[in-house]
Amino acid sequence: MSDDRPGIDVGAVTDWLVARAGLRAPFTFDLVAAGGSNLTYRVTDAAGTVVALRRPPVTAVLATAHDVGREFRILTTLHAHTDVPVPAPLAECTDPGVTGGPFYVMDFVEGTILRTPDDSTPLTPEQHRRAADSLVDVQIAFHALDVDAAGLGDLARTRTDYVARQLRRWKAQVDDGRVREQPVLDAVHATLAASVPPDSGPPGLVHGDYRFDNTVLGPDGSVAAVLDWELATIGDPAADVAWSLCYWSDPGDTACFIDTSPTLDPAFPRRAEVVARYTARGDRDWSGLPWLEAFSWWKMGCIVEGVYARRLKGARGGASQSDPQTIAGRADAYLDRAAALVAALA
What we know:
346 residues, alpha+beta, Phosphorylase Kinase, domain 1, Aminoglycoside 3'-phosphotransferase, Chain: A, domain 2, 5-stranded antiparallel beta sheet, two-stranded antiparallel sheet, 40% helix, 11% strand
C-alpha cells in the first residue's frame, strides 16, 4: 500500500480482480476525490474496462459505519429487482486479508457528477430543469418502493421512529469517537430528543445522503445512477427529503451545507420550487419539515465532528484535505446553525 493508494495492496487486489471479476491486469487505481467515508477507486484494466472499487477507510473505522458488505447487498437487490438507477454490482470480497478490509467492485457509470456550480455550467436550460426534476423524482420513486417485495425488508429491525433512531445512532457514534467536549451538540440533541415529531406517513427506503454529488447524470441531464448507499435503511422519507433539501442552496444563502453547492448556479430552480415538487407528491404530513431541518443540521455537525476525530487519528479519504482545525470549525458552524433553528421552533 502507498500514501496515494491507501487501502490498496496492488498485487493482492490485482490477483483478486483477475480471478473474481474477470478483468485483465495490469490495473491503474485512482482515488476518487469525493466522500469522506468509504474509499472509492476508479480502476482501469489493461483492456480499458473501468470499474469502481469501494472499501472502508484505512484507520478509525466506526463500529456502525462503513459497512461495504451491506452496501453491496443493497446495490445488488436494487439492480436486480427495481427500476432505481444504480451501478451494476460485479463482485464482493469479504476476506480482509486481501487488502486490509472488505471491498466490492461495480460498474463505473460514466456521466456528469455535479459538485460545484462550475460543473453545471455546460448544461443547457433544459438539462438544468431535467436534472432538478429527475433528482426529486428518483428519490420519490425509491421512497415508494415496496421494500418487502424488493427483498430489502430486513434493512431495519424497526421501521418506525426513524428520527429517534437517528438521534440515538449519531449521538452514540460521536460519543464513541469523541475527541473534545461539544456542549452545543449535546444541548441540541437533548432538545431534539424531547420534541421528535411523529412519522410523516408510511416508512420507506431512505438513502441517507441523497444529493447531486451522490448521483451521476446522463447525457440528457436525468439521473443515470444513484451512488453511496452505505447509510440506507428503512425510515421516514420526509427526513430523507429534509436532508436533501439542506444541500439545495440558493444564491445569497448565508448558511450552506456545502459552500460550493451546484444549486448555487442560478440556472437551477430555487429551493422553494423543489420543496413544492416534493410536497405535491404523495400523501404525507410535511408539517415536521422545520424540525427535520434543524435535525439535519445537527446530524451534519455530528458527521463532520466524526471526520475531525478520524482525521486526528490519521484517517484519509477522498474528501477535502483540510487541516483538522478547519474541519472542527465546520462542525461548530453546523451545530450553531442547528441551535438557531431549534431556538426558532420554540
